[in-house]
Amino acid sequence: MTNLELLDILGGVRGKYILQAQQLRSREPYAHRWSWKRTIVLFAAVLALMTMLCGTAMAVSEDFRNYVFDLIGFFLPPKTETIMIEGLEEEIKYSSFGEIPDSNGPGFAIYYDYGGYTMTEENGVYYIRPIPIEGVDDSKYPPCEMVIEHSDTDWQTLCAQTREQMIPIWETVRDAAQYENPDRLVFTARNGASWDSPVEDHFFLPDGNTGCYHITARFFLEAAEGHGCRFSAMVGTFTLVTDQDMADVENQHTVRKEISDLAKDFAQSYFNRDTETIAGFLVEDYQGEIDVFSGGEVISDILVKQISGVEDTEIGAIHVMSVEFRESDQPDRLQYLTIEFVRRANGWKVQSYGLEG
Question: What pTM was estimated for this model as a whole?
Answer without folding.
Answer: 0.61
